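Dear colleagues,

As part of the handover before I leave the project, I'm documenting each prediction I ran so the next person doesn't have to rerun anything. This entry is a single chain, and its sequence is reproduced below.
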Amino acid sequence: MTHLIQIGPFPPWIKELRASPDYKNVFEMGIDPPTVYGTEQLFGDWKGELLLVAQDFAPAHEVEALIAIGLSAEKVYRHNDGDGRYRTGYRTNSRLLKFLGRNRSDLLGTNASASGILYANACFFLKHGTTSDPLKDFRLGHPAFEGSVKVLSYVIKKMTNLKAIVCLGGVPYKMMLSTGLAQSIPLYNFPHPSRGSDESHFAKWSEAKNNAGLNCLK
C-alpha cells in the first residue's frame, strides 16, 4: 500500500486510462488495488532515490484468472514472490534482489515502503497474450504508450528524492529516450535481470551506485 501511505489517493485519471482492445487497465477489471504498479509490493518507496523500470507486469488473462478465483486485489496485483500465483517473474525478482544486495527474505516485500527504491513498468497497462509476447504497437501515439508515459511522468514528479533511473531492458530505455522523461536525472540501461552473468550485472550496479551516489544499494 505504498502509494496510498506515502502519497495518498490515486489521481482519478489513472483509473480512467484506457487502451483497448489490445490492453487493459487493472482498475477496469473489477478490483481496486492499493498500488499504481504490481511491482510496488516488492519495491515501493515513493520517497526513494532509485526508480527501476521494467517492461510490463503480467498478461491480462493471468490477472483475470486470479480475480476469478476470488483473490484479494492486493494479492492479485502483486509481484511473483514464489507462491505460485504467476508462471513467470520469480527468477527475475530473485536475481534482482541479489544484484541490489538484498536478502531473499525481502522477496516478500516486507521492506518495500522503506527500501529506497520504487519498481515501475514502462507499460502501465496489462497486455493481451502471453508473457513472452511483445507489447503490441507500443509506440508514440498509441493510447497504451501515451497513457503509460503520463503515469511514469506522474511517478517521476512525485519522487522528489530521485537520483537515478535504471531501465531493465530495451523497451523501457527506448521509451525514456524517445520521450525525455528522465530529463536531467541519470539514466541507465541494464540487461533484464534474468539474462546475463552475475558478474556483468554486479559491475553495472556498482557503476550506478558510485556514479549516482545511491545509498539504497548495498
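The chain has one domain: 2-212. The radius of gyration is 16 Å.

All the best with the project,
I.
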